[in-house]
Amino acid sequence: MRVVTYNINGIRASVKLGLDKWIEQYDADIYCFQEVRCNEELSRQLLFKNESQMDFFSMQAEESPLKAYTPIFNCGSVAGYAGTLTLTKLKPDKVVFGMDEFWQDNEGRTTTIFIKDYAIINAYIPNGNTRLDFKMQYLDALNKFIAKLQSKYKVVCVGDYNIAHNEIDLTNPKECKNKSVFLPIERQAFSDLLSLGMIDCFREQNRQTIKYSWRSYRSRWDNSYHSWKYRIDYILASQSLKNSVSYCDILELDYSDHLPVVADFKI
Structure pTM? Predict the structure, then answer.
């Protein structure tokens, strides 16, 4: 099972650059996109090139090159802001928006699909620059939600966490020590998620590898120390899946200021 997480920084711009063609060619089993920033109707038209409004359990129109995927939109009610989208070849048994009793919001930040004994969470953690309290509340809810799911499911929680966990995960740790993304309280919240019995799949597979999943457009091709680059997009998985992870990497693409993270699970 190949899972991809990717903050696309707006579906309209990314599809214009060719994201839909890449989705088809890369042929992953599950794509989890964050920051869709578009309503469901237009997002559907952009990806599937059809006008019909179909339930997420129904097949796509034959003319769509992405017809093999079931789309699950959680675009929120704030126009042009946040939102998540999951595309899955594996038909979900159940879909949950939000995080049960722990978190309900109107920004479309969390979508969970349940496939047999797997719960796959697509999460877009808030940026803490202007709403740090909101971010910490979200992370607390995510902690409780994962703990609840782990009693019944193998959990894979992917997304844009907006946190660089350790110094190896960003280019300028000294300059960022008082900056949201690398604040001690954020890093501790990430450690708390791991302490639930979750693993960081990329770091498990690449112990000392220096790679980043976000870079400013200005520093995209700048490899100097002072370029702004972070590893803030993650695939976390239940400890019980540790030996099932055969591959995890960050791909070089130009459809967003983020880069996709991909993991293969042997199931």
Answer: 0.93
